[in-house]
Amino acid sequence: VSAGVRRSALDEAAAPDGLWFPIDLASDPALGGMVATNTGGARMLRHGDVRRRLLGLEAVVADDELSVLDDLTTLRKDNTGPGPSSWFVGSCGALGVVTRVAVELEHLPVERACALIAPSGPAATLRVLRAVESGLGPLLSAFEVMSHAATEAALDTVDGLHRPFPGPLPELVVLAEADGPIGTADILERVVAALADGDVADAVLAPPEEAWALRHSITEGLARRGVVVGFDVSVPRSELVGFRADARRLVADALPRATVADFGHWGDGGVHCNLVFPADAPPDGSERALARQLVFGCAVDDHRGSYSAEHGIGPHNADWWRRVTPAANRRAIRTLRDRFDPDRVLGHPGLPF
Ligand SMILES: Cc1cc2nc3c(=O)[nH]c(=O)nc-3n(C[C@H](O)[C@H](O)[C@H](O)COP(=O)(O)OP(=O)(O)OC[C@H]3O[C@@H](n4cnc5c(N)ncnc54)[C@H](O)[C@@H]3O)c2cc1C
C-alpha cells in the first residue's frame, strides 16, 4: 500500500477478506510514519512491531539523483542480503521518504475478551502477567497496566467511562486481553478465576470496548488534570517493579509538585512514565530537563532500559542518543545518512544523526 494510507483505512480495506493489520494504538498514523517510528502498539506482546511485520518497502532518498530504492517484496522468506526494508525501520524520517510498504496482515479474531484485574500490588502484577501468559498461551494479546493516578484522571474527567470495580481504585489496574477462536472468552474467564487469591484483590470480565475506552482515555484524562511531561521508556520486565518504585521516589524527592501517573504495556516492558504538573504552575525548562534526567537515568542507568520505547529519536532525547549509542554505531548511521541525505534536508532538524 501507499505509505500515506492510514492504519484504519488499511483495516477497512482488509476487513472484507477477514484480515486486519494488528499493530493497534490509540492514534491513527500513516504506514510510512509507523515504519519511521517502528510502532509497536498495545498488542505488540502478541503481534510484534513494524520491524516484525514489514515485508518490504519502497523509498526515495535525497541524493543527487533522488534515487528510488525498490525493496517492495511481499515474500515472507527472502534472504537476499541487507537492504532498505531493515534500514528504514525506526529511521525517524532521516534516510528518505518511504513511499510504499508491504506488511503482513492477520486473520481477524473470531472472539475477543477482556478482563480488568486489581492485583494486590506491583510485584503481584508481574506474577499475574506470568500466570495469564502461561494460562492463555498465544491467545494473550495485550497486558496493559494503569496506575491509580492515571485511571483516576480518566474516570474523573472523561465522560462515559465505567469504574472497573466497586469501592476505591486499586494502586494498579490490569487490562488483559485474549484474541482467538470461539471459546476464547471462556478460557480467559477460567484463567482469571484461577489466579492466586493473594495476588488479586478483584477481577472482572469487561466488554473489550469498555475496557479499552478506559485505557485509551488516560492521555486525555491526564491532559485535563494538568501539564503533562511524558516519557516513553522501557525496561526488562524483571525490572518493572524496581523502576517504577525508584522513578516515583526520585520524582517525589526532586520535583514534589509533580504527580507520577504511569501506565503502559507491561507485557512488553513499556512504561509511559508521565509526570503531571499543576496547570496553574507549569514546569519551566529546567524542571523539564531535570524530569528527563531523572526518568531516563532511572530507566537506562539503573534498570538496563531504553529512553525511547516508542516514538523514536527527536530533539528531546537527542542528547541521550549521543550519550548511549556506541561510537561505531553512530558512525554507521551517519555514513548511511551521508549517502542518502548528504544535505540534511530530511527529518527533524534536531535529529542527532
Ligand atoms: C495517542 C498516541 C498513542 C501512541 N501509542 C503508541 C503505542 O502504543 N506504541 C508505539 O510504538 N507507538 C505509539 N505511538 C507513537 C506512534 O508510533 C507514532 O506517533 C506514529 O506511528 C507516527 O506515525 P505518523 O503517521 O503520526 O507520523 P508523523 O508523526 O507524521 O511522523 C513521525 C516520524 O516519522 C517520519 N515519517 C513520517 N512519514 C514518513 C514517511 N513516509 N517516510 C519516512 N519517514 C516518515 C517523520 O519524519 C517523523 O520523524 C503513539 C502515538 C500517539 C499520538
Features:
binds flavin-adenine dinucleotide; 14 helices; 353 residues; 3-stranded antiparallel β-sheet; alpha+beta; 8-stranded antiparallel β-sheet; 13 strands
Shape: globular
Portion in beta strands: 15-25%
| Bound ligand species | flavin-adenine dinucleotide
What proportion of the residues is helical, as a percent range?
25-40%
What is the overall number of helices?
A: 14
End-to-end gap? 29 Å
Biggest pleated sheet: 8 strands, antiparallel
Question: What is the count of β-strands?
Answer: 13
Would you kindly provide a written description of the structure presented here, covering whatever features stand out?
This protein is α+β, with helices and mostly antiparallel strands and 353 residues long. The protein is built from 14 helices and 13 strands. It has helices spanning 7-14, 31-37, 44-47, 50-53, 84-87, 122-136, 148-157, 184-193, 208-216, 218-225, 240-254, 285-302, 318-324, 327-340; strands at 19-20, 54-60, 68-71, 97-103, 106-107, 111-119, 140-147, 172-180, 200-206, 227-229, 232-234, 259-264, 270-277. Strands 6, 7, 8, 9, 10, 11, 12 and 13 form an eight-stranded antiparallel beta sheet that branches. It has a three-stranded antiparallel beta sheet with strand order 3-2-4. The chain has a two-stranded antiparallel ribbon with strand order 1-5. The radius of gyration is 21 Å and the shape is globular.
